Amino acid sequence: MKVFKFGGASIKSANAIKNVAKILNSQDLSNCLLVISAMGKMTNAFEKITDAYFNNDQEKLTESIDFTSNFHLRIINNLFAENHVIHQKITVLFRQLVRFLTQNKSRNYDYLYDQIVSYGELLSTIIVSDYLNEIKIHNNWVDVREIIITDAVFRDATVNWQETEKRIKAKVDFSKLTIVQGFIGGDLNGNTTTLGREGSDFTAGIFAYCLDAESLTIWKDVLGVLNADPREFKEVQLLEHISYEETIEMAFYGASVIHPKTIKPIQNKKIPLIVRSFKNLNSPGTKVSEGVTLEPTIPCFIVKKNQVLVSISSLDFSFIVEENISDIFKLFHKYQLKVNLIQNSAISFSVCVDNNLNHFDLFYNEIKNMYKVSFVKNVDLFTVRYFTENSLEGIYKLGTSLVTQINKNTAQIIIQKK
Ligand code: ASP
Ligand code: MG
């Protein structure tokens, strides 16, 4: 069994989808499962629908629904004949979405988010599946919400591995190529859940694990795993081999090439992961497996944006001790603020947290009654694995450094941009 994952960029247009078909035709597809994300930037577009709906902004709601619907219609007009059943299927899905919006009574944003944003993956997989069938790459479309079972923590659901493994093994017929949605799952009440942004890699990892796959391939628009994000850094290099441990370290610090939760399941079963380019079939890409830590061994740069640097001290200037730290962490957990760096001194405790769910203000409102709290929003956290003197200099030039933490292999610097 082989698992392939194609992300949004690989299916962002009709031509891109044709390219995916070309790649599939060059591969052995017996015993293969495809995990597919929403097309292009459609997840962002569905987030806009969610916001407009939640804020009751009728004009923006209509505008954003039209935008996503036109995007998909343009693609199917390019890929299918006028009388193909796909046109009907897509219309039905959009009607279903609008019906949900009209009938829904919930004001739980995270719940609404998952019910709405998941349409991105439902649409993309139905389109790709029908197109591949049309050109004789025969496949089965499967609704992953019935097999990846999670808890009901919307937008950040945790997988129920036992139930999921049971269902994957029982429900999927692998005599044909199977196509499933990445990123989404279902709870035991039949509600749609999501695994966190960019979670399709994780979905692929879940399938690889449950199916004891021989390999997992993630097809990307870059050559493989690079030592820095080419959108942020001018000079980047391909990493040829990375160990599971090193990949987990890098993902932990925020490397975005592979979703952090993806590695553990495949490491447990020693399933090799190949990250390679859908634009360049000649490049071997990066292999993540057991063995050498990092080949070549060069500094690797990772940036986490939209961070908040929070400093917490007690109201009466007493020391911050274990009990306080435990209270504070309970609140971080409660508001799903991911802690990326910790700096402790006798009377103050500083942490850098992710604010990607925008829960920071809620956290602040609660903690400010118990502690003296100051914070700087919108800072960047740079991490350099295998740093050299030179490699850090460039980072200090980007703004004011607020915190630097150095240990054996890793340097971390918090920068407030100029
Ligand atoms: N479509 C989802 C997202 O953009 C999941 C993914 O792409 O992995 O976050
Ligand atoms: Mg995506």
Brief summary:
Helices cover 37% and strands 25% of the residues. It folds into 2 domains: 2-213, 3-Layer(aba) Sandwich (Carbamate kinase); 300-417, VC0802-like (2-Layer Sandwich). It is of the alpha/beta class and 418 residues long.
- Compute the CA-based radius of gyration: 23 Å
CATH topology title of the largest domain: Carbamate kinase
Assigned CATH superfamily of the largest domain = Acetylglutamate kinase-like
Bound molecules: aspartic acid, magnesium ion
Identify low-pLDDT runs.
Answer: none
CATH architecture of the largest domain: 3-Layer(aba) Sandwich
Helix fraction by DSSP (H/I, runs of at least 4): 25-40%
Distance between the termini: 50 Å
Task: Describe what this molecule looks like in 3D.
The chain has 418 residues and is of the alpha/beta class. It has two domains: 212 residues, Acetylglutamate kinase-like (Carbamate kinase), CATH 3.40.1160; 118 residues, 2-Layer Sandwich (VC0802-like). It has 13 helices and 17 strands. A nine-stranded mixed beta sheet has the order 3-4-2-1-7-9-10-8-11, with helices on both faces. Strands 13-14-12-15-17-16 form a six-stranded antiparallel beta sheet. Helix 2 packs antiparallel against helix 3 and helix 4 packs antiparallel against helix 6. The chain is globular. The N and C termini lie far apart (50 Å). The relative contact order is 0.10. The mean pLDDT is 95. The structure holds aspartic acid (ASP) and magnesium ion. Aspartic acid binds next to loops.
